[in-house]
Amino acid sequence: MAAPRAPHSTHSVSPLHLSHFTATSCIGTGLDDTVSALREQRGGLAPCQFGDIRLDTWVGEVPGVDDVTLPPALADFDCRNNRLALLALEQDGFADRVREAVARYGADRIGVFLGTSTAGVLQTELAYRQRDPQTGALPAGLSYAGTHSPYSLPGFVRAYFGLKGPANAVSSACSSGAKVFTSARRLIDAGLIDAAVVGGVDSLCHTTLYGFGSLELLSDQPCQPFDADRNGISIGEAAAFVLVERAPDPAPDGAILLLGIGESSDAHHMSAPHPEGLGARMAMEQALARGGVSPEQVDYVNLHGTATRANDATEARAISALLPGTPCSSTKGATGHTLGAAGALEAVICALALRHGLLPAGINTTQIDPTLAVDYCLATRERPLRHVLSNAFGFGGSNCSLLLGRAMGGQ
């Protein structure tokens, strides 16, 4: 099979400002909890007790999601995925910052671009249990558009804030929550919007758990990315949101910036990555080129690192070829693999790493696979960071890398 084509363009672009962000996952509700968990090397995975699912696996379930109540006017959006979204939106003053942006730019000048893999499919799964025994009809109250449709997530967020700008859902498997930054980048550069709410939300459901189980990809213990004994993934759920705007020039000291985005599609296989990691390497190279950053300037890489044998091996080949010796880790050992939300969650984790000078440990991993030639962080390290790379790679060879940086001295 021919190698993937080179990126169409690698010219440097102006940065975007991550003016505010938030994340909720099994390691914490909001940023303070998340940072504490990263510092303390504390994970949130536990044996699966979600609903009536009976699988010998561990999951990253977010507590309190079922206690969230959507506003009555948004009742058609009521499902676990949108409740998780609302729980996250109300953390860290994020909703207030979005409303301030509305007052500053106007509701029609703010876009919404959100990633998800299954949206509110759980609502349909539960509805199938309530079908009419004679006709097989689903319950009359089921709103496919408001819950199951991938657009239900950005539709809910757009309605919650009363936004009127462009909105779409990105569902490209596990790269979804990273690729949304490209959607925002394009429309801001085109002058169609001034800011965007980007991010990703995915919640636990039967489809993903039994689906990955049927692929024999689920671990029967907390996942161990890059470990010699790794044996599969742990599914998690999460919601992460970022408010992105044009970066001021000069950017204020300490501002978190999106410097470059790289995307590729190696189309090697429906579910397996290219064995040499060609698509992954292309995405990283493009992100660096567009950010005007050399490989030697990258201080940390948040790996896609799912803990499957094939994924970790191919990503390690790409890292060792492009970024040899660069410290890296996968935070999926703490959060689980949050699928369509992973790219957004890990972008926020990288933003926190830049803000607090943290290189998060890859917890659960105890013995690095000797065939994977990377500098994998087994313990959290603390030191100032300037540039970090976040990888999100999905089924079908959909790859996305985000290059984030911390402004220093008005740069």
TrEMBL record:
Gene3D superfamilies for the chain: 3.40.47.10
Coiled-coil features, chain-numbered ranges: none
Domain of life: Bacteria
Record key words, sorted: Acyltransferase, Transferase
EC supergroup of this enzyme: transferase
GO molecular function: 3-oxoacyl-[acyl-carrier-protein] synthase activity
SUPFAM superfamilies to which the protein is assigned, alphabetical: Thiolase-like
Residues in Ketosynthase family 3 (KS3) domain copies: 1-406
Keyword Acyltransferase applies: yes
Stored InterPro entries: Beta-ketoacyl_synthase, Ketoacyl_synth_AS, Ketoacyl_synth_C, Ketoacyl_synth_N, PKS_Beta-ketoAc_synthase_dom, Thiolase-like
Record EC number: 2.3.1.179
PANTHER family: BETA-KETOACYL SYNTHASE, POLYKETIDE SYNTHASE-RELATED
Similarity section: Belongs to the thiolase-like superfamily. Beta-ketoacyl-ACP synthases family.
Record-linked NCBIfam families: PRK09185.1
Protein name: 3-oxoacyl-[acyl-carrier-protein] synthase 2
Protein species of origin: Cupriavidus numazuensis
